Structures are given as C-alpha cells and as structure tokens.
Amino acid sequence: PNGPRCACGEPGHWEALASGTALGALARERAAAGTAPSVLARAGGDVEAVQGHQVTEAAQVGADDAVALLREFAGRVAVGLAGLANILDPELIVVAGGIVAAAGELLLEPLQREVADRIEAPDHRPAISVVGAALGERCGEIGRAHV
C-alpha cells in the first residue's frame, strides 16, 4: 500500500517495480547516489536522462554497476513471479518485453535464481524454469494479431 505509484496512479502495483519504466527509475536512483557511473555516463551525465535501456547496454559490455542493477531488478521481478508460482504451481514461466529481449541471460539467469530462492516448499515441488519468450519483445502484439 505504501509502494511507489504505478503508471495507473495506484500505489504498490508490481508494475511499478518490475517494468522497463521501473528499471529506469531504479537506475536514476542509483545514478543520483553515485553507484551507477557506467549507466550515468551512457546518459551523458544527466541523472534525469537515465533509462532502463542504458542499464542493459552497460551490462552487456560488463559494467559491474549495471550488472548489479539488473540483479537487483531481477529480485524485484522475482517477488511477483514467485508469488504467482506459489499459487499456480507452473512448470514454466515465460517472460517477455523489451528488457528481456535486450538483456537476455544477463537478466534471465539472476531471475531464475531469484524465483527459485522465493518458492515455498521447494523440496516438494519440481523446479520451475524461467525463460524468455521465443517471439521476443513483440510476442504480445503477435498474439493479439492471432486472436
């Protein structure tokens, strides 16, 4: 209830913590605190210009601060995915979107680990795989076109 405001205006929605917009906000916070220098450099030194894609770009070239940001972001995404998995008990979770398409395994690997760490009674369930969508960031549009 006291979480950050979602784009819809309501506080505490998962979207406010686990979207591309949320990654940009997290990166701006870290850049302002001085802990994301590679990301800030990609934004021309302007904290307000920092966006999520700059995090993935910096992580792809091995910038430790950007890799750490993606890991932190994966933890935020995993909270929601694990909550759903604890209720629905899926065998597979498929994630999509621009961040997944751009970051690939840099996001999927820590996301898989973070989800596994948050599953209730993991010794009594089969492991859940977390994978990127085969159709990439446009899979939602492609799916809507087929309906």
Q: What topology, given as strand order, has the largest sheet?
A: 1-2
Low-confidence stretches: none
* Helical amount: 55-70%
Proportion of β residues?
A: 5-15%
End-to-end separation: 35 Å
Structural class: mainly alpha
Radius of gyration: 16 Å
- Secondary-structure element string: HHHHEHHEH
The rough form would be described as globular
Q: How would a textbook summarize the main sheet?
A: 2 strands, parallel
> What integer is the average pLDDT?
92
Instruction: Tally the helices.
Output: 7
What is the strand tally?
2
Task: Characterise the protein shown here.
The chain is mostly helical. The protein contains 7 helices and 2 strands; from the N terminus they run ααααβααβα. The chain has helices at residues 20-33, 37-42, 52-60, 64-88, 98-103, 105-118, 139-145; strands spanning 92-95, 129-132. It has a two-stranded parallel sheet with strand order 1-2. Helix 1 packs across helix 4 (64-88). The longest helix has 25 residues, at 64-88. It is globular and about 45 Å long. The termini are far apart. The mean pLDDT is 92.
